[in-house]
Write a structure and sequence with these properties.
Two copies of one chain form a homodimer. The first copy, chain A, is an alpha+beta fold and 556 residues long. Chain A is 24% helix and 29% strand. The first copy, chain A, folds into three domains: 204 residues, Bira Bifunctional Protein, Domain 2 (BirA Bifunctional Protein, domain 2, 2-Layer Sandwich), CATH 3.30.930.10; 130 residues, YbaK protein; 85 residues, Anticodon-binding domain (Rossmann fold). Chain A starts with 20 loop residues before the first helix and ends with a helix. Chains A and B meet through β1, β2, α2, β3 and β4 of A and β1, β2, α2, β3 and β4 of B.
């Protein structure tokens, strides 16, 4: 391809207000162009990369026996009604009616569609397991669309759905997919962590995200130093270290406490450690149930863990009015005496501290020497604490905090959809109709592409991994090198090498800068100076050298 | 691929109420499954064919220098407002609002999007011409969705848009695309006719459909026997043969005529030929303009030709009330005396007949010896007649009537979009900003796939052309052939041959029938009977023979 003929050339303009390197470089390099917020054109250069990523994913998926197909973009809304997902889907679903009044959802995921097509066939256990997938546009009506391809409102996702005879069969498919995902991302130049994650309303332990470590990522997870345990902040389990458990019980006392309403105010007033204070956190769920979460003062409550423990879909902070209606005071809340008035939920860390202090349910009154089971009791006890750097995982390893870009996820669906949807069954060996056990496996192509750029660039531009580079060779002809360039271009094309030839009438400076920005692995320069030979430089290293054409073929 | 593992197997059920072979065979063969009316799943088998068709189109498009990219599915509605296409697009546009109130169109075509992305760049004449295309889902909210993939509400289309410096440059691109289309369809096993067609509101002579001749097609066109002229019924030009032009003028007379309101009633009453009668056809356009179309009695008015001549967007038949309001009578309409009351439009055929007869604008009154320019005059005169079998084309060839499936179309857009859309310009050599001259080139993948099946099947099933068959080899193992099958399967896979192995525990009859239905080019059978050898049969011929494995590699 001659660069002069390429649609979508480099631009010097930076993108206003975006702090993401991938957004800047992909835009400036002529890979993408914004249509409306969160919706992008892939220009020819960007589409080449996108399609190479798809190809690698397809190769690896097909190796596992998974089968590509496609579902319509418009999903009959009645299917989403069957599974009660119209309002509870976790992202904003877009819906539309056609000229005859039929309602459709713009697919954000396609569980219902795949169950629907599968139940059209009368399958038996002999047909199982199978794993069907598609590359298709997904719509997420996100309130915020982040810069570039990292969080968008429309993107191509590879979504796979496995249909299995039972949980055991599913687990084998799941393990194979986990391995396949690691392989896929590794081929794309991405080192990923397989992170235990929250499976939302589906539940169960088979749920992992594939995270590419990055400070700009929205993913938040913890990893043992030796990677023996990696888990999302919303599920990361860790040991609560014992504090003053050997202390003697002291008598419960309430005293005047003229202080502000923060935890720090309590520490300052009483001169006691933060961990000895009790932290109280009042929330309300979707059924207007008041929930008091109680935790050791040096930990924070993780709201997802809390929601799971109390089996709520949505939690919000209680208002000052709601707290006052209980006759108690924000900043001075205590579990003591609230039994029966709210649901009291405590973290296991409460058992690692004795003679705790905190509010006494009245303004400027604090309690000293509060002890669990003696002064207050819990309605529910469990893991509701957010991990933090340095806490010890259950396997004894200290945890490190990480941020990452989530490029893929795999999770069990179990019987969730096949129980809700009529006739989503196969005939088992015993002649009985049984629901399919399902799994789901996703990869966002655009975000993966952006993650590659976040990980593979320098101050000059992108450094594409070879397998997904838009071209293998970037040929630059300078003054006096035009005829040689023509010959090299022809030879490379004859050998099937993907070559981008910058044949423009531009300065060496402009051509070199564009070449570095675009990030093709091999740069070739021919000019009067290089004579019969060719200057070869790899994008990833600084040095260049003069070579014969044959040497180039060995590199590709 | 083992057939036992394939998702989407054959079914014996026929599709209720569909008379289309492609609909029946693709459904029964396990290639497609209906989601909602006019929206289909492509099952793994069907998707393989779909993707092979795409690959061939891509190869041929890329050879011409065209560049693949992609636009978002949701088009900002403001772009469609810029070109006034929201209501006048020719198909039902689907629109949607997001959570923030932004309005989008679900793309039916993508002219606005491609102009929009192009105008984001500051292009010069040096960047031209270029041709950018995408494979993307198109939405057409058709009132009727025909059987199977022939007319659907959602389909993947390859749509290309050329941006050219001027009309001359466009013409070269257009001719190259025309040639490319013929090559593409030929590789797909489709003989196509390049049919002159109506370019709607854009106008101009550069507009062609690629039609696959088929009695079930909705396309209607005429072709000279030697194919020197092929044109859609809406544009087909032909000579009007002279009738009684040498007759003497006779005096205009009105007489009582107690007859029915049809043309045949007139022939019967007067004992004169149909061609001597005048046919009157009253229509109303979108501005409520009354238009009387007048034509020789043995021709019919083509409403598209009529609309073009009177420069109307939409025509509808006048109601009886509207005709009565003129003080005249349906079934007895005449142009005589209507001058100034309606727009009188006549076909050139009126000049091939003298002393015509017809209604006299009153019930049961007819006129005799009506002559153009003497008894009535036209406001507009031109070609508004529908061709019919046997008429003579302008090049002297008789025309044959054809029906076809339209699989592709190419047409000029000229300056239509770039004049309506702001800043859709490039900087020309003279330093001035000029609008791009555009062309558009479409192929519907699903309909093309269905057309292949309509042309390549027998009573047992599909007969896929080799290049787009879902698999190259269909291996059948019968009793005693299991071990040999395993070996053949392995050898074929090692050589990269796409092989579908029917490894099920089914009868020979079932396996042969499924094989014929699916239509893979080469059938191999191994059984106790075939011993060390393999029975080879091509899907396209009846005979089978025993061969060694090596012989098979020569065939592929």
């Amino acid at each position: 391809m001659k660069y002069s003929r390429l649609f979508g050339k480099t631009t010097r303009d930076t993108v206003d207000g975006s702090k993401f390197v991938s957004h800047q470089l992909l835009t400036r390099g002529g890979f993408i162009a914004e249509s409306s917020a969160g919706r992008y054109f892939f220009l020819p250069l960007g589409w080449r990369v996108h399609e190479k990523i798809k190809k690698i994913i397809k190769q690896e998926m097909d190796k596992t026996g998974a089968q590509e197909m496609i579902s319509p973009v418009l999903h009959p809304l009645e299917l989403w009604k069957e599974t009660n997902r119209i309002t509870s889907v976790g992202f904003e679903l877009m819906t539309i009616k056609d000229g005859r009044g039929a309602a459709f959802a713009l697919g954000g995921t396609a569980e219902e569609m795949f169950v629907d097509v599968v139940r059209k066939f009368r399958l038996s256990y002999k047909d199982l397991p199978f794993n069907i997938y598609q590359f298709s546009t997904k719509f997420r009506d996100e309130m915020r669309s982040r810069g570039g391809l990292l969080r968008v409102r429309e993107f191509v996702m590879k979504d796979a759905y496995s249909f299995d005879r039972n949980a055991d069969e599913f687990k084998r498919v799941y393990q194979a997919m986990a391995q396949t995902y690691t392989t896929i991302f590794s081929r794309l130049g991405l080192e990923t962590s397989k992170v235990e994650a929250d499976n939302g309303y589906i539940g169960g332990e088979y749920c992992h995200e594939f995270q590419v470590e990055s400070d700009i990522g929205e993913g938040h997870y913890f990893t043992a130093e030796d990677k023996s345990y990696i888990a999302h902040a919303d599920v990361a389990r860790f040991k609560r270290d014992d504090k003053n458990v050997h202390e003697e019980f002291k008598p419960y006392t309430e005293i005047d406490a003229v202080r502000g309403s923060t935890m720090e105010d309590g520490v300052k007033l009483h001169g006691l450690p933060m961990w000895q204070q009790i932290k109280d956190f009042m929330v309300v769920d979707e059924t207007n149930r008041l929930i008091l979460a109680v935790i050791r003062g040096d930990y924070d409550v993780n709201e997802i863990k809390l929601a799971r423990l109390v089996e709520a879909h949505h939690l919000r902070h209680a208002t000052v009015e709601e707290i006052h209606m209980l006759g108690i005071e924000p900043g001075f809340i205590s579990p003591v005496g609230l039994k029966g008035k709210v649901l009291i939920v405590g973290d296991t860390s409460l058992r690692t501290v004795k003679n705790a202090y905190g509010g006494a349910n009245a303004k400027h009154r604090d309690a000293l020497n509060m002890n669990i089971d003696r002064d207050y009791t819990l309605d529910l006890e469990g893991d509701i604490a957010m991990a933090k750097p340095g806490v010890i995982a259950e396997n004894g390893q200290p945890l490190v905090e990480k941020h990452g870009i989530e490029v893929g996820n795999i999770f069990q669906l179990g019987y969730h959809y096949t129980n809700l949807m009529k006739d989503a069954t196969f005939i088992d060996e015993d002649g009985k109709a049984k629901p399919f056990y399902m799994g789901c496996y996703g990869i966002g192509i655009g975000r993966t592409l952006a993650a590659v750029v976040e990980k593979h660039h320098d101050e000059k531009g992108i450094i594409w991994p070879k397998e997904i580079a838009p071209f293998q060779v970037h040929l630059i002809s300078l003054t006096g090198g035009e005829i040689k360039a023509q010959e090299v271009y022809r030879l490379l094309q004859e050998k099937g090498v993907e070559v981008l030839w910058d044949d423009r009438d531009e300065s060496a400076g402009v051509k070199f800068a564009d070449c570095d920005l675009i990030g093709v692995p091999i740069r070739l320069v021919v000019s009067k100076k290089t004579g019969d030979r060719i200057e070869l430089k790899l994008r990833s290293i600084k040095e260049s050298r003069l070579v014969e054409i044959d040497e180039i073929f060995h590199l590709i």
